[in-house]
Design brief:
Layout (H helix, E strand, L loop, with lengths): L4 E8 L7 E7 L6 E10 L2 H7 L9 E2 L4 E8 L11 E4 L8 H4 L9 H6 L10 E3 L18 E5 L3 E3 L6 H4 L5 H12 L7 E5 L3 H12 L4 E6 L2 H9 L4 E4 L12 E6 L4 H9 L1 E9 L13 H6 L3 E4 L7 H13 L9 E5 L3 H9 L5 E5 L2
Bound molecules: zinc ion (2 copies).
Length: about 375
């Protein structure tokens, strides 16, 4: 059981610099850990800000938090998974705090420590560099920019046999965040109206989730015509190009709005789009020193609400299973937003994702 395994990893060594490939050794596994042979890993915005040194994670580090693959080995106490199981990895939560106990692990009090400290809580590491140099890991409890990743029983989830790894990978964060916010937090119902501000991967997932929930009016707001067209193809009923219509006043009134941009001005527009008793969900943090400028009278007199949502809220397992089910019925066409890259092209994939050239870059491991 307590073996070690050799693997290749893309290592972020200096803020803002490209990834460099290195040889790592994974293991030995703790009792509740699993070893995953990574077959695909998506690139998410948080990987970019972490690589650029803006998240405060220690370097050098193996990033990656949308990994999918095959269980290769399990720790002594793992009961839900066995070698050969197809899984997707998501964020790690503690399972013991109040939020975890009531079934909302996305709000786990220990999430920062478990996902961003660069190691296990006791300071140890699940992977090492073969050359003996320091290395940090456990990013989101997985560090999946590697051919092998060590996760925990708590943050891996089974995926259907017919769901390709490259489509399953983004369910671990970006796609789950958009869809989960619609279903778990906004509780969008049939016949309601939803505005999605920013239709990248998270926003397009929100559009697909709102369509699946039966929302009658789904407004996609973005500045890129290609994204707007894709949103319309995936279920949006109205599109607004914010580059041409700066006020976006035609969006109002909606029952629900979701901001995926983290841009203070856009958040203001999203709030202004709410009708009576409307709710705005924020999923992307603006820069730390920026303050929201919301008119409290508009909030109160309109009986409106604002929510901060982490990873789509609720539980990752439930959201992932629902997306996979809808995909199998042709109602959540993940293939429309995914662009495949070889793992060796990680720096190109990052660049394309940053420049908005692709919606969701997913790397496929050999
Ligand atoms: Zn917890
Ligand atoms: Zn993410």
């Amino acid at each position: 059981m307590n073996d070690c395994w050799r693997a290749a990893a893309a290592i972020a060594s200096d803020a803002g610099r490209e990834f460099e490939f290195g040889d790592i050794v994974a293991g030995p596994l703790r009792d509740d850990e699993v070893l995953v042979a990574v077959k695909a890993a998506g690139i998410c915005h948080t990987d970019m800000v972490a690589r650029d040194g803006l998240l405060g994670v220690p370097m050098p580090i193996v990033l990656g938090h949308e990994g999918a693959g095959i269980i290769q080995a399990v720790g002594q106490s793992v009961r839900s998974f066995a070698p050969g199981d197809r899984v997707v990895m998501s964020y790690l939560s503690c399972g013991e705090c109040r939020e975890c106990r009531v079934g909302v692990p996305a709000s786990c009090a220990r999430l920062p420590e478990l996902c961003f400290s660069g190691g296990r809580p006791d300071g140890s590491h699940a992977v090492q560099q073969q050359n003996g140099r320091a290395l940090h890991d456990r990013f989101f409890g997985q560090s999946s920019f590697a051919t092998l990743a060590v996760a925990n029983e708590r943050n891996v989830f089974h995926i259907p046999a017919d769901l390709p790894f490259e489509l399953a990978a983004p369910l671990g964060c970006g796609v789950m965040t958009g869809a989960g916010t619609i279903w778990n937090e906004l509780d969008v119902q049939a016949g309601s109206s939803v505005a999605v501000f920013g239709v990248g991967a998270v926003g397009l997932a929100a559009v697909m989730a709102a369509a699946a929930a039966g929302a009658e009016r789904i407004v996609a707001v973005d500045r890129l015509p290609t994204r707007i067209d894709l949103a319309l193809a995936l279920g949006a009923t109205q599109a607004v190009n914010a580059a041409q219509d700066a006020s976006v006043s035609c969006v109002r009134p909606v029952d629900h709005a979701i901001d995926t941009t983290g841009n203070i001005q856009v958040i203001g527009q999203a709030f202004a789009s709410l009708g009576q008793r409307g709710t705005l969900a924020l999923i992307a943090p603006p820069p730390p020193k920026q303050q929201l400028n919301v008119n409290a009278a508009d909030l109160i007199l309109g009986s409106r609400r604002m929510l901060g949502v982490i990873e789509g809220g609720g539980s990752a397992g439930g959201t992932i299973a629902h997306i996979a089910h809808l995909h199998s019925r042709g109602r959540f066409p993940l293939e429309r937003i995914v662009t495949r890259y070889d793992f060796s092209s990680i720096n190109q994939a990052m660049l394309d994702a940053e420049r908005g050239k692709v919606i969701k870059a997913v790397m496929c491991m050999p």
